[in-house]
Amino acid sequence: MAEPKEDSVFFVGLKYPVELRRTILEMLKDVVDDLHKFEKFKESREAKVRETENLKTAMKEIDKLMAKLKNALPKTNIRVRLHDHERLARKREEEKKRALDKGKKKEAREETRKESTQLERLESELDAIESKLKDLG
To answer: Above 70 in pLDDT, residue 129?
Structure first.
């Protein structure tokens, strides 16, 4: 019969075992620090989710209360007067829109002006030539 195999044990010699052990321990320390940071990150993410849910519930409550308030207040045709800075902001936006529209119209006008100026120039040259012909003939 075959004899059972004995587990062979091999030993490997390491150069600078103290430095190797120190390096491994430093790496393990870095891994533990990274895991600690990751746990903090997970906690902050969970806190963010909780706060987002709290905000959603608060917004729903505010919407319900606003609806109740609107129903409780009398219906009127009174307009809300805007604050000066809001009014100025709206005017600036309207002016920007108008400026953009004017810019587009102005470009179209300039193109027609160029065409008309070329036409006028050609007509003036034609008139000059005709006047020279009259002088000659």
So the answer is: yes
Structure tokens at 121: 């120039």
Residue boundaries of the structural domains of the chain: 14-73, 84-137
Nearest to 35 by CA among 19, 27, 81: 27
Supply 82's token pair: 């805007």
Q: What is the pTM of this model?
A: 0.42
Q: For residue 66, what is the enclosing H or E element?
A: helix 17-72
How do residues 108-119 score in pLDDT, each as one tens digit? 677 766 666 777
What value does the CA radius of gyration of the chain take, rounded to a whole number of Å? 43
Q: 136, 135, 112, 132: which is closest to 124 by C-alpha? A: 132
Each as own residue / partner, the long-range contacts of residues 102-108 (CB below 8 Å, 24 or more positions apart, any chain) are: none
